[in-house]
């Protein structure tokens, strides 16, 4: 029999609805707030959800948006409210709810809504790409989402000033909601033509790092920039280079000027380290919902280890690691041992720490080596940023790295 999740903060309503629906032969799951609803939805996999709008921790509309944003709105949702308005009902329907019931809920309307929902065919295809909207508990990511949306409402072009640990792709996926066409210009080696732009109309063009584009790809980029308005396109490009550095490498001045008109410096993986467990968990959930990996979940210990890794490759590296862990783990729970086993040896080594069974001087040197290796990876060898991060004067920093036998990244200093 179908499984129904009832989400309402009023115990009387939960009991009444569950009693009615159990008498009809349905299996019932109950949640008193959004936090419980998230857990119950992930564990219980309900066939339909009855979702109250007004709840104390997170309201139903916000939870509905969250499910839609991270690809979890693959079950019918019926909204319920005792203080509903037409605008609220319209918004809920626009986000993806299939029906709207006003309290007190009439028996026949309840049963009819449930029946319609269960008869509704599932939407085909993979879930919409993961966006910043999925990360509701992270203050930095919520603020970043608001900034991106504000810029995207007024500009078709956004340059992301990033370094190691970039969240560029996640940001780019967030300038549009829902499923839109996506074209990675760095993946196109041949001349770009009008047909490709027409096929991407209304969507997003993306460049993960400007400095990696060949001369031919730079021409493709210029061709696309001139036609953003015509094809209702938005361009999100990322780089850790300055405008002067790109000009010195032979970029056209007009294109560089256009690219640097509107820029944003988003946080890196290092800046949102405390939010890495949520980031990894949402990525895993999205992969499961899309059928890319089997049902898996992270243990608390595994998430702690994920938090402590540097992720110099940023969001793309984190997503690839989560997918590898989900596919390579034999049990349903991904444990700390799986992280150590499946991640690269140099990354896993950083989790081991420093042995206490050695003299203080050697332990201190071992810790300092791990510390500077970590930040060298994190900053991509950029010595200016490394000096700022570690709080060391440049001459002292070079001397310390030499003492530890580490290579200073002089060629990155001016980037």
UniProtKB/TrEMBL annotation:
Residues 134-327 form the Sigma-54 factor interaction domain. GO terms for molecular function: ATP binding; sequence-specific DNA binding. The modification 4-aspartylphosphate is found at residue 52. One of its GO terms (biological process) is phosphorelay signal transduction system. Residues 3-118 form the Response regulatory domain. InterPro entries: CheY-like_superfamily, Homeodomain-like_sf, HTH_Fis, P-loop_NTPase, Sig_transdc_resp-reg_receiver, Sigma_54_int. Keywords: ATP-binding, Nucleotide-binding, Phosphoprotein, Transcription, Transcription regulation, Two-component regulatory system. It comes from the Bacteria. CDD domains: REC_NtrX-like (cd17550). This is Two component sigma-54 specific Fis family transcriptional regulator.
């Amino acid at each position: 029999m179908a499984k129904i999740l009832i989400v309402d903060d009023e115990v009387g309503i939960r009991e009444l609805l569950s009693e009615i629906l159990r008498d009809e032969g349905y299996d019932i799951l109950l949640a008193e707030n959004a936090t419980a609803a998230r857990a119950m939805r992930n564990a219980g996999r309900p066939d339909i959800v009855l979702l109250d709008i007004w709840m104390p921790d997170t309201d139903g509309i916000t939870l509905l948006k969250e499910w839609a944003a991270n690809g979890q709105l693959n079950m019918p949702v019926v909204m319920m409210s005792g203080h509903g308005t037409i605008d609220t009902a319209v918004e809920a329907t626009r986000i993806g709810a299939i029906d709207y019931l006003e309290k007190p809920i009439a028996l026949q309307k309840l049963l009819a809504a449930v029946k319609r929902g269960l008869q509704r065919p599932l939407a085909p295809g993979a879930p919409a790409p993961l966006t910043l909207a999925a990360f509701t508990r992270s203050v930095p990511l919520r603020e970043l989402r608001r900034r991106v949306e504000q810029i995207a409402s007024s500009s078709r072009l956004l340059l992301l000033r990033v370094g190691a640990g970039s969240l560029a792709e996640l940001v780019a996926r967030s300038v549009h909601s829902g499923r839109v066409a996506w074209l990675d210009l760095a993946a196109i080696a041949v001349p770009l033509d009008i047909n490709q732009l027409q096929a991407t109309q209304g969507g997003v063009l993306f460049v993960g790092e400007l400095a990696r584009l060949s001369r031919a790809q730079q021409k493709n980029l210029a061709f696309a920039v001139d036609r953003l308005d015509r094809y209702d396109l938005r361009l999100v490009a990322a780089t850790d280079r300055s405008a002067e550095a790109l000009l010195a490498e032979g970029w056209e001045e007009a294109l560089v000027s256009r690219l640097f008109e509107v820029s944003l410096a988003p946080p890196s993986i290092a800046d949102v380290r405390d939010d890495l467990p949520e980031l990894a968990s949402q990525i895993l959930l999205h992969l499961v919902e899309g059928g890319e990996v089997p049902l898996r979940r992270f243990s608390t210990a595994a998430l702690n280890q994920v938090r402590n890794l540097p992720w110099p490759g940023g969001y793309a590296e984190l997503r690839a690691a989560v997918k590898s862990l989900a596919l390579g783990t034999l049990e349903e729970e991904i444990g700390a041992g799986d992280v150590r086993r499946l991640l690269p040896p140099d990354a896993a080594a950083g989790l081991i720490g420093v042995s206490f069974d050695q003299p203080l001087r050697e332990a201190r040197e071992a810790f300092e080596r791990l510390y500077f290796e970590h930040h060298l990876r994190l900053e991509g060898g950029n010595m200016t940023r490394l000096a700022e991060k570690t709080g060391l004067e440049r001459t002292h920093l070079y001397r310390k790295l030499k003492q530890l036998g580490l290579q200073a990244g002089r060629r990155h200093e001016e980037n």
